[in-house]
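Input set for joint prediction.
Command: fold jointly, output tokens.
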Amino acid sequence: MSVSELEHPPVAATPPAAVEDLSPRGGRSRAGVAWRTYRGRVLRILVPALLIALWQASSALGWADEFTLPPPSRILDAYGELWSNGDLQAALPTSLQRAGIGLALGVTIGLALGLFAGLWKIGEEVFDAPLQMLRTIPFIAVVPLFITWFGIGETPKLTLIAAATVFPMYLNTYHGVRGVDKKVIEAGQTFGLTGWRLATRVILPTALPAALTGLRYAAGVSLLALVLAEQINALEGIGYLVNNANQNQRPDIVIAGIGIYALLGIVVDVLMRLAEHFALPWRPRVTIG
Amino acid sequence: MSPSAEAVVDIRGVRRVFGDRAVLNGVDLRLHQGDVVALLGPSGTGKTTLLRILAGLDAADDGRVLVPKARSVVFQEPRLVPARRVWRNVVLGSRHVRRDRSRAVRALTEVGLASHQNAWPVTLSGGEAQRVALARALATEPGLLLLDEPFAALDALTRIRMHDLVAELIGRHNPAVLLVTHDVDEAILLADRILILDGGTIGVDVTVDIEKPRQRTDGRFAELRALLLGRLGVGQATAAAP
Ligand SMILES: Nc1ncnc2c1ncn2[C@@H]1O[C@H](COP(=O)(O)OP(=O)(O)OP(=O)(O)O)[C@@H](O)[C@H]1O
Ligand SMILES: [Mg+2]
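tokens >
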């Protein structure tokens, strides 16, 4: 045994229980590192693909009745059919326009009320209590009332979507504005900022993340409201396709329609995340795992 | 400073009452341009309250308060607006932000952070953020600079660097300065005058006549420290620290 070895206490093979080893794992294989890096992407594609394969197989193996649950291949055919007879091209813009107009209306009202209630005491006193009460009404419950009030044209559909999206926008904006650090506002005041300048330089930029969260929720809710609104005797749009197919006993087209709603949901979410990414470059990005 | 020169800060008989307790109970204070005054006092005696009244963030219940229009505050925390880049934070209160960019950069250069002008506040270290707050305070060329324990949250090494920086910048811009601190050494290093606030009034008002730069090893430094610590009710045993 050499002298230098004697000078160093032997290193324990495994650390005692109270110790956590956080040193970078030098020993991990390249494959392991690659797996960790790409795991997320791989699983994201693999799991849905497996589920679809299972669905297809269930038909082929006779586990599921082809008529009750048509296999994915039949759904694809249904899309082809909808496309070639022009139904899809007609329905999609109609539905998107409904959701878009309703969302724009609701978000504008929600944003205005949220800013008003957040920035001014009088706004809070006037609007917060009634909005908090209205918020508790499930918007599905008011559909019959809207039909009595507005008939069965476009008005009840747009009103429903707008009404449903006001609340997430209002709540998040209001809380965002109220949640701005009082100390930072005070610092702005010591540098002479008041009123409009204080709002545009300190309060609104700091409240923007919350407002964007509100917008993201509102966009999601607008699709939900769209589905519901299109059940109200729609004569065009995705909902009309679905209802029609239901009456004609075409579950493949019904499922295809549901698929479009789902796809719209994903597209909206991705767009909103991108918007947040570019509108909020100053936010630290933290994820776990 | 000639005693006849007009005071930039002149407060008389300032009272501030919270509940039934008069935190400030007749505070008098005059500051002239270029005065650097440190305010010491046990925790909860109303130092921050006084500073907030001077800043115009709180109102006194009674008394007279005359302060310059151009005032700046550096708080214990940097208090930067997270959604604005560093240089925009420096000219936060400016009427024409874009036009004042060069002023922002000049102020950042003074605190050694010109290269961070486009950074977002979250990416700064604690010491850097506090230097930005200092640049912001000085960029407006204030007649009165109010510092409320601006170094308290910094590590010891950074604090020493900040002392030198602040001393240099104060010398260059020459505002009246009120520095609230808990650190007796810091007060002796930076201030020309040291006040102790206790029981709602200013009980001690000593002039520091040790030529700068002051050394902690100087006999007069130790003597003054012992005196102040005594008046703050801290015995010699604990006073021996660094
Ligand atoms: N807004 C307020 N409402 C009620 N009491 C307050 C308020 N602000 C301060 N006080 C009280 O006034 C006293 C003085 O507070 P202040 O913050 O001025 O102390 P301080 O000398 O700065 O203390 P520290 O050295 O710990 O910072 C404290 O007892 C505090 O509780
Ligand atoms: Mg204080």
